[in-house]
Amino acid sequence: xxxxxxxxxxxxxxxxxxxxxxxxxxxxxxxxxxxxxxxxxxxxxxxxxxxxxxxxxxxxxxxxxxxxxxxxxxxxxxxxxxxxxxxxxxxxxxxxxxxxxxxxxxxxxxxxxxxxxxxxxxxxxxxxxxxxxxxxxxxxxx
Length: 142
What we know:
The protein is 46% helix and 25% strand. By secondary structure, the chain is α+β, with helices and mostly antiparallel strands. The protein has one domain (8-141). A four-stranded antiparallel sheet has the order 1-2-3-4. A hairpin with a 5-residue loop joins strand 2 and strand 3.
């Protein structure tokens, strides 16, 4: 077999290719490190926010026991300056949590007030009793 000598041009091309490959590896490592740091920061923020949300939920559960009439729940939320939407369930936004940055950029955290029926009616009535209070997260995702 005959071997071909490596010319100066081939050595230059190999050196450039190796430099580009090393640069790409270095950039990837730095990007991954930044991603990991951002994820750790988001986890700390989410943990702190979770404690706040659980405290607010406990406060709602204490001030609005199961069985409280819908009208009283609405009056309470209004008196506290809490904005809410009113349909079958009453929904109030508590805040936002950071997302992962890829699929979801943020998560909205809401408290849901669920009601039963005071009478046999499909209408929402002021006397409908509160049956549950819970937290829900809704992602702002792709």
